[in-house]
Amino acid sequence: MIPRSAIVIPSSVESNHIIISNMQMDTTSKNIHDNPNVFISSYDKEFNKCIKITGYAKIEDSGDLFNKIKLLESTRCSFVPKEIIIVEIKKLEIVIEK
Fold first, then answer.
1. 53-85: buried (b, 16+ CB within 10 Å) or exposed (e) per residue?
2. In this prediction, what percent of the chain has a pLDDT beyond 90?
3. What's the pTM?
C-alpha cells in the first residue's frame, strides 16, 4: 500500500496532543480505525525546520470536546467536522535544515 498524506490545519494544539477536524478525510479515518499509530510532519519555511510527530490517534464524533471543536470550526470556515482526530503525542522531533 502506498502511504497517503493529507494537508490539514490543526483545530487545537496542546503540549501532549493535537486535534484535527475531519471534514473530508474518509480514508484517513478508516486507516486510523485499522491502525491508530500516526506520523505527522510539518515544515516551517521561515525558520527552516521540520517538526516530526509520532503518536496514537483516536476518533470522536460526539461529546463535549467534539462540540467545542465543531463550534470553533464554524467560526473559521464553512465546513462542519464529521469527527475529530485526537493525536496523543508520543515523540516530537525538531530537525533544523542547514
1. bebebebeeeeeebeebbeebeeeeeeebbbbb
2. 31
3. 0.79
